[in-house]
Specification:
159 residues, globular, 42% strand, 4-stranded antiparallel beta sheet, mainly beta, 0% helix
Length: 159
């Protein structure tokens, strides 16, 4: 079992680094992303946010018109995804995947890498199914090795 990671020991400004962890995303029982070549961003009071290389995606994305801005990483581009062809349900999920086409200094390594909210698909870190960071604003993935109060839920906005 990996050592515990306390989110209150993560830095601010956030730290970007390569992670050797095996990341998988499954949707409608089909693997849609798989990599051991990702980055994670560690920021005080947040569980890790993972950034997967575009080559790890097994189904196509379409660009959304939605945009947002991160004080640390810059302007974010959002993506839409249609359910896998083998799925019995035809649906398109919008704005639950994002990337940075021109990330700010210090985050250049995640240019065009993709980050997924932990749902509606199932996300896995080293085989463990993750829980979504509380709330619907941040995209961190919570695993059993994460500890400490996490930002995102009621009463934590001003942290």
């Amino acid at each position: 079992m990996p050592p515990k990671l306390n989110v209150h020991n993560f830095p601010r400004p956030p730290l970007l680094e390569k992670t050797p962890r095996h990341l998988q995303i499954k949707w409608h029982n089909q693997l849609i992303a798989d990599t051991k070549d990702a980055y994670w961003v560690l920021e005080t009071t947040h569980p890790p946010t993972y950034y997967l290389p575009p080559s790890s995606l097994l189904i196509p994305l379409t660009r959304s018109t939605h945009k947002s801005y991160c004080e640390w990483k810059g302007a974010a581009t959002y993506w839409n995804i249609a359910s896998p062809p083998s799925s019995s349900t035809a649906e398109t999920i919008k704005n639950r995947i994002w990337s940075y086409e021109k990330p700010t200094k210090g985050f250049e390594s995640i240019k065009d890498h993709l980050s997924f909210y932990a749902g509606p698909w199932d996300c896995y870190v080293d085989g463990e199914k993750v829980e979504a960071q509380p709330g619907d604003f941040y995209g961190g993935w919570v695993t059993s090795d994460i500890e400490g109060p996490i930002k995102g839920g009621p009463g934590t906005w001003g942290w």
